[in-house]
Amino acid sequence: MEIFEYAPAPESRSIVSIRPSYDLFIDGEFVEAKSDERIVTVNPADEEPLAEVAAAGDADVERAFAAARRAFERVWSPLPGAERGKYLFRIARVIQERARELAVLESLDNGKPIKETRDIDLPLVAAHFFYYAGWADKLSHAGLAGTRPLGVAAQVIPWNFPLLMLAWKVAPALATGNTVVLKPAETTPLTALAFAEICQEADLPPGVVNIVTGAGDTGRAVVSHPDADKVAFTGSTEVGRQIARTVAGTGKRLTLELGGKGANIVYDDAAIDQAVEGIVSGIFFNQGHVCCAGSRLLVQESIAQELLARLRARIERLRLGDPLDKNTDLGAINSAAQLARIRELAAAGEAEGATGWSPACPLPERGYWFPPTVFTGVTQAHRIAREEIFGPVLSVLTFRTPEEAVAKANNTPYGLSAGVWTEKGSLMLWTASRLRAGVVWSNTFNVFDPASPFGGYKESGYGREGGLHGLEAYLDV
Amino acid sequence: MAEASPRIGVRRTYKLYVGGAFPRSESGRSYPVTSPAGVHLANAALASRKDVRDAVVTARRAFPGWSGRTAYNRGQILYRIAEMMEGRRDQFAAEVAAAEGAGRGKAQALVSAAVDRWVYYAGWADKLGQVLGGANPVSGPYFNLSEPEPTGVVGVLAPTGSSLLGLVSVLAPVITSGNTAVLVASERAPLPAVTLAEALATSDLPAGVANILTGRVAELAPPLAGHADVNALDLAGAGALAAELEELAATTLKRVLRPGRDDWNAADPGLARIRPFLEIKTVWHPMGR
Question: How many angstroms separate the CA atoms of A200 and A94, rounded?
Answer without folding.
Answer: 11
